[in-house]
Design brief:
By secondary structure, the chain is an alpha+beta fold. Helix content is 40%, strand content 18%. The strands form 2 sheets. The chain has a 6-stranded mixed sheet with strand order 7-6-1-3-2-8, with helices on one face. Helix 2 packs across helix 4. The protein is globular and about 40 Å long.
C-alpha cells in the first residue's frame, strides 16, 4: 500500500504546483493602474511652429490595441502595426510570434508635431495604451515579442523617453517599477494587411472587447481634449 500512497501524494504535489504557477501567472498578468492622475512629462519637446510630420515607434504588447488607441489621438495622422527591435529582415507574424527573432509587436505613429508633442504621446502610451510594469508580456500574451519598449529615432526622443521613465518611477505612479526599455530604432517592418486597423474592423472579437476597447474608453474619459 505504500507505493500507491506515494504516487497519490506526488500527484497532489504536482497539481498544487500547477495551481500555484497558474495563480502567479494570472496575478502577474493583471494590469497595474496608475495611482491618481498621470503626470505630464517634465522634459518634452515644444510644439512646432508649423505643421509637419514626425514618427515615433512604441511596443506595448499586442499591436491591435496600441494602434487602435493612437488612431484616436488628436494630432496623429496614422498608426501602423508592425515589428521592431529584432535581428531578422522582413519578419512575418508567425516567425515573430515564436519569439526567436528579437522583434516586438510595435506601432509606428506618424504625427504632426505642431499639434501633439512626443511627450504627450508617451503619456498616452504609458497611462492608456498598455501596462508599462509588465515585463515580456501584456495580460494573456507572454513572450519578449510582447515587451514594453520605446524605440527612439532621435537624441531628443531618447532624452524625453529616459526622463519620463525616471519621472514615473520617482513619483511611484505605479506600485511596480516601469519595465519599459528605451532602445535605439533600427528598422520597422509593417505587419500583414489583416492586422492593420484590426480593432476598428473587429470590435466584436472577444480579445478586442476584453483587452482593447476598455483602452479607448479610458482614453476618451481621461483625456477628452486628446480624443477624436
Amino acid at each position: 500500500m505504500r507505493e500507491p500512497f506515494i504516487g497519490r501524494a506526488l500527484s497532489v504535489v504536482a497539481i498544487l504546483g500547477i495551481l500555484v504557477w497558474w495563480g502567479a501567472r494570472v496575478v502577474s498578468g493583471r494590469p497595474a493602474e496608475p495611482k491618481g492622475s498621470f503626470p505630464s512629462p517634465v522634459v518634452d519637446a515644444s510644439l512646432a511652429a508649423q505643421k509637419g510630420k514626425a514618427t515615433a515607434v512604441f511596443a506595448g504588447g499586442c499591436f491591435w490595441g496600441v494602434e487602435g488607441v493612437f488612431e484616436h489621438v488628436k494630432g496623429v495622422k496614422r498608426a501602423t502595426s508592425g515589428y521592431a527591435g529584432g535581428n531578422v529582415e522582413n519578419p512575418y507574424y508567425e516567425l515573430v510570434s515564436s519569439g526567436s527573432t528579437g522583434h516586438a509587436e510595435s506601432v509606428e505613429v506618424e504625427y504632426d508635431p505642431s499639434q501633439v508633442s512626443y511627450g504627450t504621446l508617451l503619456k498616452v502610451f504609458f497611462s492608456v495604451a498598455h501596462d508599462p510594469t509588465q515585463k515580456d508580456r501584456q495580460g494573456p500574451d507572454i513572450g519578449t515579442q510582447y515587451r514594453s519598449a520605446i524605440f527612439y529615432k532621435t537624441d531628443e526622443q531618447k532624452k524625453i523617453g529616459e526622463a519620463y521613465v525616471a519621472q514615473i518611477n520617482a513619483a511611484k505612479v505605479y506600485d511596480r517599477a516601469i519595465a519599459t526599455q528605451v532602445l535605439p530604432y533600427s528598422a520597422f517592418y509593417p505587419a500583414e494587411d489583416y492586422h492593420q486597423g484590426y480593432l476598428e474592423k473587429h470590435p466584436d472579437n472577444p480579445y478586442i472587447r476584453y483587452n482593447d476597447l476598455p483602452k479607448l474608453a479610458k482614453l476618451k474619459s481621461t483625456y477628452p481634449d486628446l480624443y477624436r
